[in-house]
TrEMBL record:
Higher taxonomy: Eukaryota, Viridiplantae, Streptophyta, Embryophyta, Tracheophyta
Protein name: Integrase catalytic domain-containing protein
Any one GO molecular function term: nucleic acid binding
InterPro entries named among the record's database cross-references: Integrase_cat-core, Retrotran_Ty1/copia-like, RNaseH-like_sf, RNaseH_sf, SH3_retrovirus
An example Gene Ontology biological process: DNA integration
Segments forming domain Integrase catalytic: 1-99
SUPFAM superfamilies recorded: Ribonuclease H-like
Length: 178
């Protein structure tokens, strides 16, 4: 990498970032104010992610407040599916040197069943209803909204019903549990 171009955002205009780039011999360029067209590649990528997220939220009527989960999932999927046109490989292949395994990909917003743990009564349900919201950043598994507790949990003990929309009555703001 020889050059980094960023907008005039304050997150990039600071001495620690400038020192970081200088140590590595990387030139830092700034685009003109209010001209997003100068950074066309990033603007196209952002537009693609937003369009994917909007489509994913609309498919099963997932509430708009899960937009961050949808963007994260769109980015996760696009890195494993879309090809770099000039190189004919995915972003994942460029980074890790091998083809990605996509057999674990699921339909965003679909109904799922989360396996309950612990001591359960003989006639108690063994699963909780949930909604699939994406993939955790640092572990194998899935991020799902548990509809009983209204918590977003990360687990691999999930069964999916990808044909059925969840369409639950969403109430309150979910909390993240890990």
């Amino acid at each position: 990498m020889k050059t980094v171009r960023s907008d005039n955002g304050l997150e990039f205009k600071n001495s620690s970032f400038a020192d970081f780039l200088a140590e590595r011999g990387i030139e830092h360029q700034f685009s003109s104010p209010r001209t997003p067209q100068q950074n066309g590649v990033v603007e196209r990528k952002n537009r693609t992610l937003v369009e994917m997220a909007r489509t994913m939220l609309d498919e099963f009527g997932t509430p708009r407040r899960y937009w961050a989960e949808a963007i994260s999932t769109a980015c996760y999927v696009s890195n494993r599916v879309f090809l770099q046109s000039s190189l004919k490989v995915t972003s994942y292949e460029l980074r890790f040197g091998r083809k990605p395994n996509i057999s674990h990909l699921r339909v965003f917003g679909c109904k799922c069943f989360i396996l309950k743990k612990g001591l359960l009564d003989k006639f108690e349900s063994r699963t909780s209803d949930g909604i699939f919201l994406g993939y955790p950043a640092h572990m194998k598994g899935y991020r799902v909204l548990n509809l009983e507790s209204n918590l977003v949990v990360e687990t691999c003990d999930v069964t999916f019903d990808e044909a059925s929309p969840a369409r639950p009555e969403f109430s309150g703001t979910p909390q993240v549990s890990e």
